[in-house]
Structure formats: structure tokens, C-alpha cells
Amino acid sequence: MVQITLTELDQKKLDGVFGPATQIAMSILAKMAPVYGATELMDISAAHIDSTIYIGQAGLEFAERLAGLGAQVAVPSTVNVSGLDERHWQEWSVPTDWARDAYRQMVAYQKMGCIPTWTCAPYQTDQRPYFGQQIAWGESNAIVFANSVIGARTERYPDLLDICCAITGRVPASGLHLTANRAGDLLLKLVEIPLSIKKDDSFYPVFGHLMGKIAQDRIPVITGLERQPTEDQYKALGAAAASSGTVAMFHLVGYTPEAPTEAAAFQGRRPAESFDITMADLRQARHDLTTATGKRLDMVVLGSPHFSLAEFAKLAPLVSEKKVHPDVRLLVTSSRAMTHLASQRGYLQALESFGGKVTVDTCILATPMLPPEIKTLMTNSAKYAYYAPGLLGTEVTFGSLADCVTSAVEGRVIRDDSLWE
After folding, report:
1. pLDDT tens digit string along 149-186?
2. Distance from C-alpha of 104 to C-alpha of 98, rounded to nearest angstrom
């Protein structure tokens, strides 16, 4: 294993000059850096902490120990979703002891100076990073969005290491922090895909799901899209690819900032592999996102990654003057900031009149909120569709946003497949 060389300031942190919490954080970082293949550390100027999700006593004890020792983040640090919606948890099946401990974990991270964003989409906050900024982000969809769409630079930082980076203001000088490691590895060519498909929101989670399965942990370069995606389409694409694979970065030739040309995306190298993506491939990927059979529907769930203001704006007219079926629940997961903005614009009122609900600061994958009778879900999120069967034991139908609303009204799964035929 490679050896890490610490600066004089790093060594002082390791020796406890800056207090015991910083000493713990630096000791962990110094041990982990060689695992990343780094021989030295480098500065960051922002962080996004995924360790805030409560998954048990170990994570809680770690956070409270750091906070109790006086830990403070050295850079502006947003926080990912928590294990609790403080405002609405009692409306669901969240156990009281879970709520208590998840709240304690939230408090611990706020004591360390973290910004209480509580969202998996920190790029939609006022703490959005800028091109070339060195950051330490956790949460897979945030990582791929930052690297690909913004051109900020982060490696995949796991729980507990992310807060250590934030406290020390340092990261291993390796991986996607370095220009040479940001070149594309393989080429994905969209071949004879109708423009009507490429414009549709549902194309991006479907293609992202396929992209992740092909690329795994490599950097794909995409050609043939012929249009600039919206921010939420980028969000859906990256989240899907980071779920079905471990994609941390992609290049969309002509559109993402480090890929003005195919040659630039590959930094002059030749792709190791090349794949033609056809309509048949996309149809199969869309099919794979559905695990449910039949028309039964218990819940429609939207917002993974967290619903944006633009998505609330699209949803509002779809639910206007309609009512959710009495046998179905409709849930949107979002951040407290986006929900506040949606309320100001009247979007939230439309959803509530429809009979839908919003959960903030968390999601169905991060808190035990769903009652046991919820067995079948429908969603427009490839991330929810990928994780829910394994994590929640539910069956899932993937559909467009319009499909989800129609199904919620009718009380059974209804999908318009005409675009994909």
C-alpha cells in the first residue's frame, strides 16, 4: 500500500493540536487516503455529508462523540437526507424510538456547524458548487451531478469519512479530484432514437438505468442526444446511473462542461469500449424497472432525488381539480426549502387538495415510514424503482409522471406506452 505524506498542518491536526475531534477525523482520513491510492492530501472548500442518515446506534454514537468533543466543520457543509421528517413522522409508521435517535443524529451534525439542508439534491440549494471547485460530497446522485453537470470535483465519499473530510478541510489527492482521472472510459452512442423520446422526461431515468448497468464504475461518454437536458432530466439520468451502477461521472458530448467534443471528453484517448444504444435496449431497460405484475396499486411515490420546484410546477396542473383514489396514497419527498417555495407558488396547495402528501428532509428509503400494508408502489424515479424491492420489500411499477397521477386517480396501474412502441 502507498504511504501518505502529511504537511506540517496535517501533522498538527493528527497530533491533537486542534483538539480531539479534529485529531480523530485526521487519523481516519490519514488511514483511508492510501486506500484511495493517494500519497498526499489536498484542500476542499465545501462538503455534503451523507452520514446524517440514521441507520443504527454506531452512526449515532460516532456523530455524538465528535459533536461532544467540540468538532466543527472547516468548510461550508450541507447535509443529506436524515432518518426523520421532524414535522410529519407521526402521520406514518415511524417507531418512536427511531424518531428519537434519528433526531439526536440530526442535532449532532447541526452542532458541528453543518447547514441543515436535509436534501439529497444539494446542487439545488444556494450552496451549489462551481466549476472546478474541490469538494467532498457523499450521496451517489449528488456526486455524479456535481462531477458531470457542474464540473466540480469530488470522489465517492462514504458515510463517516465525509464528515472527517469536512472537519479537516482535506481529502485524498486522488481519483476524480485529478484532471487525468476525469477522462471518459467508454462510448455510448444513441442510435436512431426519436427526438420525441429524447425530449421526454421518462427517457432520462430509463437511459440512466441502462447506462449504469453498462458502465458500472467507469466514466461513460454519450453521443447522439442532440439536445440540452433540463436540470431535472440531468438529475434523473445521473441518479439512475449511480443506482444501477456506481457511475460517479459522465460526459454528454456538446453539453456537459468537460465535453465540448468527443475528443475532449476522452482527453485524446481512445475509448476502451463502444456501445450502440437502440430503442430495443431502452425498451428492455424500461421493462426492467418494473417488478410488479398486475394492476394493484397501494402508493405512488415521487421525489428521488428530492422533488425540485420545477417538478412541483409540473405536478400541480396534473392533479388540479382531481382527487386521489381512496385506496391509493400519493407521496412526494422533497426538502424543506423546495416545499416552502412550492407552497409560496401555490403548487403545494394543489397537491394537498388532490389528497397527496409531502414528506420533507427524508425519503421512504431512509426512514421506516411505510405501513406494512403498502406492498405495491408506482414511481417515475429509477432510483426508487431500483432500491425499493430490496430495501422495502415492495413491488414497483415504473411510469411517467402523468402515468403516476392517472394511476393514483384511477386506483390501479395505468401506463401510456405509445411513446415507447
Report:
1. 999 999 999 999 999 999 999 999 999 999 999 999 99
2. 10
- Cα 258 to the center of its chain, rounded Å: 21
Which of helix, strand or coil describes residue 168? helix
User: Does residue 136 contact residue 73 with C-beta atoms inside 8 Å?
Assistant: no
pLDDT in tens, 345-401: 999 999 999 999 999 999 999 999 999 999 999 999 999 999 999 999 999 999 999
End-to-end CA distance of the chain: 53
User: Can you tell me which residue has the cell 386521489?
Assistant: 324
Q: Please tell me the pTM assigned to this model.
A: 0.97
**Helical segments of 188-278, H only:** 195-199, 203-215, 231-244, 262-265
Name the pairing type of β-strands 170-172 and 41-43. Answer: antiparallel
CATH code: domain 299-420 is 3.30.499.10
Q: What is the 3-state secondary structure (H, E, C) of 316-364?
A: HHHHCCCCCCCCCEEEEEECHHHHHHHHHHCHHHHHHHHCCEEEECCCC
User: By the 8 A CB rule, do 163 and 196 touch?
Assistant: no
Specify the DSSP class assigned to residue 269: P
All structural domains of the chain with their residue ranges? 8-180, 183-288, 299-420
Burial annotation 31-59 (CB, 10 A radius, 16+ → b, else e): ebbeebebeebeebebbbbbbbbbeeeeb
Kindly tell me the burial class for residue 302, based on how many C-beta atoms sit within 10 Å of its own C-beta (0-12, 13-18, 19 or more). Answer: buried
240 closest CA partner among 301, 292, 285, 174: 285
* CATH architecture label of 8-180: 2-Layer Sandwich (3.30)
